[in-house]
Design goal:
Layout: E1 3-7, E2 10-12, E3 18-25, E4 34-39, E5 46-51, E6 57-59, E7 67-72, E8 77-82, E9 91-97, E10 113-114, E11 118-122
Amino acid sequence: QVQLVESGGGQVQPGGSLRLSCTTSGFPLASYAVGWFRQAPGKEREGVSCIGTFLFTHVQDYLKDRFTVSRDNAKNTVYLQMNSLEPEDTGVYYCATALRPGCSGYAKGDLSSWGQGTQVTVSS
């Protein structure tokens, strides 16, 4: 069965960095896109990034200078590197897939498989 498990979250001070991992199983990661989303307390879920095949990546414009998405297909893992973290980055971060190769439509969040999320807290 399709599974995605996020890890790497935690509490960091403003300006710190975290590298989130999304470990997948039950599907050929190399053939499909994976998106990252986050949800702050009391807020709606928002899209963060997507990584597809053919080396395509997308990060929201307001996060491009600080966030980077990558993948290691041999390890069945997608990463989200987050630098210069701000309190506004606090929230639960999720990875998800629609079992499609491209990132088209991922911004809508209409995806079939989601992880349980990992908490990121940025505070001093």
